[in-house]
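Quick one, tokens below. Sequence please?
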């Protein structure tokens, strides 16, 4: 199997699996107890909290709260800030290309009376810091912009946005703050992320995107920000998220993020080379294909290409039959028949947005893996185009704009 869907999830590292197994089978005590084995479990959580804190440049381990997933962290942060600041404003700013966990949560808030403003993106799935600055209103309480897009890999100008918000907040005063929420789930461990340098207030991350286990995430909350309890009934996570901690998962997440940061520069350099090779080779080998996302300012492990006149589902099924795993967009919307909301927001026609393929690397991806893909995939595209009504019509019309009614 050649696995090229590492934006969806990654394979757990042996070192991470080892420590996880230790806390499942040996150091299994409840960390809320007071005897010695429980203190070992509690120490594992404390260590992991510090590992995550250092990985993202936070000031204190106490700014890290462990959760059950990235989506849980997103929901908690957005709903908590909205609920606790509704008395002074209900305007929330976001972008059209956020992850569904963000957009659906904000849609839920809009039904509760919040005014969610969705900023349009350019053809690269980017916004500008000026767009955010110009959208701020007296009743704005939060800005939610992702660090890097999960589908096309484009990196947002987070530091510039954070600088604008810092300036705005200094003029507004601490009791009228505009909170900066940043989904960094695809970014942490792949590119440098520093919450203080970017003036980020709340930031979710997820273990399974960086060779850790599924079912564990974290939320960074800047010191001084009050969060409503996510789960009542227990004193865990300083009273904010009741329930016995997932010690094995938390310990594994801590080690996973520490290792990812330690080797990030070397892995990113390797990925940049693979990325350049795959993009150039694919676009050269297959006519009527186009790169999606920013050509340079993108995650090093991400490639998203649209192949005109064919459907993404057919590509994925035929690749799977050859032992190659890829995706056509976010794993959270893989069951949807609708085209990617990211590609549509970038201005891609509905007919073409269906034919996108996302290929994302792990630290173990090799050039040989990509060569196998490049040997296999052109034949798949040719086969699918032969049975495509769009391709047949294009052969007759000879002009894609005319075909799409432009």
């Amino acid at each position: 199997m050649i696995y090229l869907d590492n934006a969806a999830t990654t394979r757990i590292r042996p070192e991470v699996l080892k420590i996880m197994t230790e806390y499942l089978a040996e150091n299994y005590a409840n960390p809320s107890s007071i005897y010695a084995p429980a203190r070992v479990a509690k120490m594992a959580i404390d260590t992991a909290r510090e590992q995550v804190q250092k990985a993202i440049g936070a000031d204190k381990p106490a700014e890290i709260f462990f959760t059950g997933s990235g989506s849980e962290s997103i929901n908690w942060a957005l709903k908590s800030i909205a609920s606790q600041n509704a008395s002074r404003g209900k305007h929330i700013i976001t972008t059209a290309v956020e992850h569904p966990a963000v957009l659906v949560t904000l849609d839920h808030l809009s039904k509760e009376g919040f005014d969610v403003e969705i900023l349009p993106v350019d053809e690269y799935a980017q916004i500008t810091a000026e767009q955010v600055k110009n959208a701020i209103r007296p009743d704005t309480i939060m800005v939610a912009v992702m660090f890097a897009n999960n589908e096309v890999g484009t990196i947002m100008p987070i530091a510039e946005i954070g600088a604008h918000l810092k300036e705005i907040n200094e003029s507004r005063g601490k009791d009228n703050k505009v909170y900066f929420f940043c989904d960094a789930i695809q970014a942490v461990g792949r590119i440098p992320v520093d919450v203080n340098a970017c003036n980020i207030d709340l930031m979710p991350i997820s273990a399974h995107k960086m060779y850790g286990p599924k079912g564990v995430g974290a939320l960074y909350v800047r010191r001084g920000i009050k969060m409503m309890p996510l789960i009542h009934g227990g004193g865990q996570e300083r009273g904010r998220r009741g329930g016995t901690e997932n010690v094995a998962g938390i310990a594994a997440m801590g080690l996973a993020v520490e290792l990812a940061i330690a080797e990030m520069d070397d892995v990113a350099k390797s990925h940049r080379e693979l990325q350049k090779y795959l993009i150039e080779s694919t676009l050269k080998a297959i006519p009527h294909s186009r790169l999606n996302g920013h050509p340079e300012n993108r995650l090093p492990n991400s490639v998203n290409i649209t192949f005109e006149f064919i459907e993404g589902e057919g590509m994925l099924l035929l690749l799977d039959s050859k032992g190659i795993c890829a995706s056509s967009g976010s794993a959270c919307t893989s069951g949807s028949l609708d085209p990617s909301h990211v590609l549509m927001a970038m201005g891609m026609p509905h007919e073409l947005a269906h034919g996108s393929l996302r290929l994302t690397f792990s630290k173990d991806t090799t050039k040989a893996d990509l060569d196998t893909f490049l040997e296999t995939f052109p034949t798949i595209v040719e086969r699918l185009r032969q049975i495509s009504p769009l391709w047949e019509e294009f052969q007759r019309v000879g002009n894609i704009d005319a075909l799409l009614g432009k």
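The chain has a mean pLDDT of 94. Residues 264-285 form the longest helix (22 residues).
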